[in-house]
Design goal:
- The structure is a single chain.
- The protein has 7 helices and 2 strands.
- The protein is an all-alpha fold and about 170 residues long.
């Protein structure tokens, strides 16, 4: 009896078959998440983890840079649920990244740029031409403002918890 579903493994197109903007986004994702090998391990880290070491501002800067891949997804007509998943991935990295020490470990383990790039490549609409910046500019602006707001709320939350812990210790 034949199986009901056939599993087709994920196929990643070589750079020669991708539009130039997607090649640039793929290189950017590698730079952000996998640029440098960690000696003695099979893990790699990128600029995202390095920026995460800058208290408070580093994770916001990294999230804003990661929005470039989301802009690419909008440009290449990735379905809205997948774009929302990409925004969630960046926001999760931003929120957890603001937590001292734990956030730095999380930044090494959670490669949201590579995950988002895989979503973009797997779900882009090849049948329609890419959208222009004018067509997606307002949505990108809303996403950037959302990420800044999430970053500010995360910073305020971390500072509030630290101040509360100090008050508990002194009490």
């Amino acid at each position: 009896m034949a199986p009901d579903k056939v599993h087709i493994p994920e196929v990643i197109e070589p750079d020669e078959k991708l539009p130039p903007d997607l090649v640039a986004l793929r290189k950017f994702a590698v730079l952000m998440d996998e640029a440098v090998p960690i000696p003695g391990t099979s893990r790699r880290v990128g600029l995202d983890a390095g920026l995460g070491l800058i208290p408070f501002a580093g994770d916001i800067i990294s999230a804003l840079m990661s929005a470039w891949i989301i802009a690419g997804a909008l440009r290449h007509r990735v379905p809205l649920p997948k774009v929302l998943r990409m925004v969630f991935n960046v926001a999760l990295d931003l929120v957890v990244g603001e937590i001292p020490i734990l956030g730095d470990i999380f930044d090494v383990a959670f490669e949201e740029n590579m995950m988002n790039m895989r979503l973009l490549l797997a779900h882009r609409n090849r049948r329609l031409p890419p959208r222009s910046l004018a067509q997606i500019g307002a949505v990108i602006g809303v996403i950037v403002l959302f990420l800044i707001l999430v970053g500010i709320v995360s910073i305020v939350g971390v500072v509030a918890v630290i101040l509360w812990l100090i008050a508990q210790r002194n009490a």
